[in-house]
Design a protein that fits this description.
The chain is 65% helix and 3% strand. It has 23 helices and three strands. β2 and β3 form a beta hairpin. The model has no long low-confidence stretch (mean pLDDT 95). The structure holds zinc ion. Zinc ion is lined by residues 278, 282, 308, 311.
Length: 508
Amino acid sequence: MPNKYFEKLKPYLDKNSSFETVLNLIDWDNETLAPIESSEYTSKTVGIISDEYFKSIINDEVKNTLKKLNNEKEFEKLTCIEKSIIKELNKKYDELESIPKEEYVKFKELTSKAVNIWTKAKEKSDFSIFAPILKEILEFNKKFAKYRLKSYTEKYRKDDKKDVVLYDVILNDFEEGFTTKQLDEFFEKIKKELIPVVKKAVKDSEKIDDKFNSLKYDIDKQEKFCNWLAGYLGFDFNKGVIARSAHPFTTSLHNHDVRITNHFYENNLISAIFSVIHETGHALYEMNIGNDITQTIIGTGSSIGIHESQSRFMENQIGKSKTFWKPIYSKLQDTFKEQLQDVSLDDFIKVINKSAVNITRTEADELTYSFHIIIRYELEKMLFSDEITIEDLPKIWNKKYEEYLGIKPKNDGEGVLQDIHWACGNFGYFPSYALGNAIAAQIFSHMKSIMPIDEYLENGNLTPIVEYLREHIHKYGKMKKTNEFLEEMMNEKLDVKYYIDYLKEKYN
Ligand code: ZN
């Protein structure tokens, strides 16, 4: 018999999920097709819908019903899926309830406007255009984190209260259970182990001739090949679309409408190829969410870190291997006969795995990637502890790039303005990328020990690989957390050693 309290919540949950879908759709439109002047006006609509979204959850009826369901006896009567939904709803409720509604709506309007301001600032390579609105966004983020500091400490940090910092609150939003202290250790290990490897690998890579990559490649042809490649990996075009945007990303409305974007450069062939493999990794995750939980609060990826592990796994562990390209390289050569006829598969593989310091995070190789993240992580920590202000960002950004990677951005466009995340209000997001890399390496190490991955790839048969991920990760949505997935798969928690070993082996 269905639980009467849970039944009472259902219409609220459905309404909330529908408003979320609408907001995601507007976001998608803003970043793909909406004209430049629209956001100033559409942000009003976003504000009104955000207000409805807020009210659909934060009201007395939901509050009282949740209270009933949080009673242990009542909670135990629920099904497994219902329990997960209530846990997630509690988290969302606490987060939203702590913020005054007017501030929440204002923040949503602000970030909706900020994306276009960031785009203009980036085009003009002028941080001063973006700085004022970024300052407002940061202030909101800090304020919201402060509202929740106490409840966060009570819920997650009972045993180490004295170590809690404001930045922990937002980190926990993206990676539940992970703290600044843990991430400091995680990144220190990476720095210590990989800095010497980076220097050697970059030097060795200088000999690799990658001239073919910067020849001229017709963009429509690139797009056609990339879309074919997405399908080859398992992207289902009946449940998804691929568009163009300034910054490739994935949006999911539900498991039957998953959207990804790609970005093309006439003089860089491999950029779009690896963007589409990456985003397809995200898309497969969302498409494989179980039908039993779709359009519920748990019907999406578990965390950003797990999401990134799925995209990175496809992009790097799978997409950069020779066995992956063996059955399909000739198709790429046929698409670009003139440019690639003299480039052998081996040469192509060398180039896609070349280590070179790049000023742009999304173009970085696997080895230097984490340093892009470390820089952002250190800057965000400083912003949240008031060590620096928004105005200091470009200077410190450039200094850190010189210190860790030995390069300096030519301007703000390729420097501090390169990522969209802060414009979207997403502080605390970047560390998840590094966690995703580490999780991907750990999963790959495990999968290699239980199935003939290379044999599957050589035969052009990706199904068993995707099927394994679906069965052990994708279908669960938010029902499990990072360490639960890993422990159930391989009896271990997240361990950065797999990632470090993988990179050392690859680049030494
Ligand atoms: Zn990604």
